[in-house]
UniProtKB/TrEMBL annotation:
It comes from Aestuariibaculum suncheonense. SUPFAM superfamilies: UDP-Glycosyltransferase/glycogen phosphorylase (SSF53756). Keywords: Transferase. GO terms for molecular function: transferase activity. This is Glycosyl transferase family 1. The lineage of its organism: Bacteria, Pseudomonadati, Bacteroidota, Flavobacteriia, Flavobacteriales.
């Protein structure tokens, strides 16, 4: 008999963005491993991005239950709709360029909504789910964050009902990049730490998406920690042709600090040094892009080779991945981001296009790209090697020889990863 498992998540179709894909795919494959998923989501969420096409991917066998939520971002939009929407997407302007409203909203978000703006959903959810769990004889509850307030629902349900509880961290809590930008008081920072400690030490099992996060959490708890990365779902696509230009495509959000000037300088110099490169090259930006990043690109004279496409549906993003000549992955150059493995990395890997990645030294992304032979990884000071590799790729493009020979990526398939999850359940 299938084991009923309750999954508590904020992000669910028609929400767009990377936070949706992980559990959408787990729910799709869990029934194959004798698990009956029941997904609990907000009835009236305020999603910063929408992708209606993802509704087609929701498993027909999954049970979806909903409960109302009060969304503070809707109220914040009264004061500044633009600032509210931008911050809710995770795009935080540099401190010196923040308006008074943006500074105020960040302070309120960091100090009055701990751990996050969805904290008001915890109490009504615990009441609603306590009755539902007892009625349906559910033994296992899974919470996934961010938002990390989802874990507080699991924390209270375990204390109240004694259910088995798995806490899934798609991103770290107090060490995630934007945490320092929330203008936290000392007491607020301590409260975040205390809640993080309580969740990590009370959950039966902890799931993380990177080995660096596992190491970080091992310093806080002795509870079992399991690494189940994000992954890819093979999506055959026949109706596309390769870009005729030498395209370098970045898919996803480009935050203010994902701004490697070394890359923009390399591209500027290659265009200045070769008329052929200048004629053939195009930088495609698919997703939300910070104004700060665009300004820096323009400073290096790239404005006339940029195609700023904006946010597109997941299906269109997959098409861009497959038809681009090169795929660009950028992470903030900091100690805190070594643990971040963007979900798009795995979709990049299965797209059969070479990856150009930039980020901090010794990151999990660097390890995966090298192990799978899916591209090249550079640091923010790697001018010569970066320039050399892009030039080599351009020459291969001109000779119709630009390709990638991936190794061992099958373990990152969504189905294989779901099998690992099912063993914990």
């Amino acid at each position: 008999m299938p084991k009923k498992t309750l999954i508590i998540t904020y992000y669910w179709p028609p929400a767009g963005g990377p936070g949706v894909q992980r559990w959408l795919k787990f729910v799709k494959y869990l029934p194959e491993f004798n698990v009956d998923p029941i997904v609990y989501i907000p009835e009236n969420p305020n999603y910063p991005l929408l992708d209606e096409s993802l509704l087609e991917d929701v498993s027909k066998s999954a049970t979806i239950i909903k409960h109302p939520i009060k969304e503070p971002y809707k109220l914040a939009g009264i004061f500044s709709k633009k600032a509210s929407k931008t911050i809710s997407k995770g795009i935080i302007p540099e401190q010196k360029k923040q308006s008074f409203i943006e500074k105020l909203m960040l302070f309120v978000r960091g100090n009055f909504f701990i751990p996050d703006a969805r904290k008001g959903w915890v109490k009504p959810s615990v009441k609603f789910l306590s009755e539902y769990i007892s009625k349906e004889n559910i033994e296992t509850v899974i919470t996934t964050g961010p938002p990390h307030s989802m874990h507080l629902i699991g924390l209270q349900l375990k204390a109240k009902l004694g259910v088995k509880w798995l806490a899934d961290f798609r991103d770290p809590w107090t060490t995630i990049g934007y945490h320092k930008q929330l203008k936290l008081t000392r007491s607020s920072a301590n409260k975040h730490k205390a809640l993080e400690h309580e969740v990590l030490n009370f959950a039966d099992d902890i799931i993380v998406t990177s080995f660096t996060t596992k190491t970080e959490f091992e310093a806080i708890t002795s509870n079992p920690i399991h690494v189940i990365t994000n992954g890819y779902d093979y999506e055959p696509l026949k109706d596309f042709t390769m870009d005729s230009k030498f395209t370098l495509a970045h898919i996803g959000s480009l935050l203010s600090k994902r701004n490697p000037e070394v890359l923009w300088r390399v591209l500027r110099d290659l265009r200045l040094e070769s008329d052929g490169f200048a004629k053939d090259f195009q930088l495609n930006l698919i997703g939300a892009v910070s104004v700060d990043v665009l300004r820096t690109m323009n400073k290096y004279g790239l404005d006339n080779c940029i195609k700023n496409i904006g946010y597109v549906s997941h299906s269109k993003a997959v098409k861009h991945q497959k038809q681009s000549q090169l795929l660009l992955l950028i992470e903030i150059d900091s100690e805190e981001t070594k643990c971040i493995i963007p979900g798009k990395l795995f979709e990049y890997m299965v797209s059969n296009r070479p990856i150009i990645a930039l980020g901090p030294k010794n990151s999990d992304v660097e390890t995966i790209i090298k192990e799978t032979n899916t591209g090249h990884y550079f640091y923010y000071n790697s001018y010569s090697s970066l320039k050399s590799v892009i030039l080599e790729c351009y020459k291969a493009f001109k000779n119709n020889e630009l390709q990638v020979h991936a190794i061992g990526i099958q373990k990152y398939s969504r189905r294989a990863l779901t099998e690992s999850l099912s063993k914990l359940i």
